[in-house]
Amino acid sequence: MSLFSFLAVFILLRRLHKSLKTSPLFTKWGNLINTISWSVLGGYFVIESIFSEGQMPLISLVLLAGVIYFFYHEREFDNYRPLWQSLYPLAGTLMITTFFRLLFPDFYERWDTYLTMAALGGFIWTCSVCFNHNKQEKALEFERQQRQFEEQQKIYISAQKDQLEVLVAERTAEITKQKEELEQTVKELKATQAQLIQQEKLASLGELTAGIAHEIQNPLNFVNNFSEVSTELLDELKTGPLQSLPNAEKEYAEEIILDLTQNLEKITHHGKRADSIVKGMLQHSRTSTGQKELIDINALADEYLRLSYHGLRAKDKTFNAALQTNFGESVDKISVVPQDFGRVLLNLFNNAFYSVAQKKKLLNGSFQPTVQVSTRKLPGKVEICVRDNGSGIPQEVLDKIFQPFFTTKPTGQGTGLGLSLSYDIITKEHGGDMKLNTQEGEFAEFIISIPA
Description:
The chain has ten helices and seven strands. By secondary structure, the protein is α+β, with helices and mostly antiparallel strands. The chain folds into three domains: 2-154, no CATH class; 185-285, Helix Hairpins, CATH 1.10.287; 293-451, Heat Shock Protein 90 (2-Layer Sandwich), CATH 3.30.565. The chain has a five-stranded mixed β-sheet with strand order 2-4-5-7-6, covered by helices on one side. It has a two-stranded antiparallel sheet with strand order 1-3.
C-alpha cells in the first residue's frame, strides 16, 4: 500500500515535470520537481529499510498530504489542479487505513485486503489521470501546431494581398484624397447650414416665447393685484359695515365673505404660480449677454452650496443635512459666465436639498440627508458632480427630465423650467455636457462637464 503512494507521487511529478517544459514555470520549478520526483522513488527503499511495516502507511499519508498541501497553496499550479487532486482517493484510503490500524487493529486485520485493493484503485486512478493529461496535452499541442501553420498561411496570403492593395492604392490615392476633401467640405457646409437654421429657429422661438410671456404678465399682474386688494376689502367689510347687520344676516354674510376669501386665496396662489412660470419662460428665452470670466469653480461651488443650504434653513429651521465636498486641487480656473453658471449650481443644490428633505419626511426622521459636491480635472475638461441620497428619479421619466415644463415635484411646487434652463446654459452657452445618474429611492447624481 505504501509503495502505491510513493509510485503515485513519482508518476504525478514526472508527468508535471514533462508538462512544465512548455510553460514559463519550468525555469522556476523544473529542476526542483525533477529532483524531488527521483528522491521520492529512491527514498522509498531507504525509508522502508529504516521504518517498520506498521509505520509505512503513516509516512505515506504524510507524503501525500505534503504534496497536496504544497500544490494547494502554490497558486501557480492551479492549471494543473486535476493532477494533484487525483491523489485524493489514495490519500483518503491511507487515512482510513492508518485510523483503523492504530485504533481498531482487529477490524483492520479483517478488512486489510479490501483496503489494499482500495489503495490500488487510488493508485490506478492517479495513473489514469496522468495518462489522460498527457493525452490531452498532445492533442492540444497538435491543435497549436495546426493553428500555427494556418496562421502562417494567413500571414503569407495577407502579405500578398497587402502588396496588391499597395499597388492599387498608389494609383487611386490622388482621386481618393480629392474625394475626401470634397466630402469634408460638403459635410462642413451642411453642418454650418444646420447650425444656422437651428439658431434661427431658437431665436424665433425665444422671441415668440418672450412676447407671449410679456403679454401674459400684464393681465396676470392685474389678477394678482386685484385679488389681494379684494381680500383687503373683504377684511374691511367684515370689520366695518358687517357689524351693523342683524345676527341672522350677519352669520350668513360672514359665510359668504369666508367663501369669497378662500376663493381669492386660491386665485392668489395660482396667480403667483403662473407668475413664476412666466418669469421662468422669460429666463429660458432670454439670450445671455454676460461676459465669460476665469472663475475658481471650487470656490463658486462651495459658495452656492452654502447659499442654498442656508436659504432652505431660513425657511425651515428644523432641516439639517450633511454637506460633503471633495474639490480637486488640480482644478484650474475656467472661463464661464459667473451669474449663469451660479444659477445652474444653485438650481441643482436646491433640487438636492428638496429631495433629501422630502425623503426625511417620509422616513419620519430616521434618515440622514446628505448632499455631496465634487470637482475633478479631466483631459480637456472639468467635471462637477452634485449627488444627494434623496428619493432619486424614476427611470421612466429620465428622457423627459431636461424638457421645459416637465417636473417631478408635486403640483404647485415646481415650474419645470429649472433643469431645462440649466441644461441650456451648460450645453449651449458653455459648450459643455450635463448628465444624470440615478436610482429611484436611493440617489440622484448630476454630472456637469465644462471644456477647460
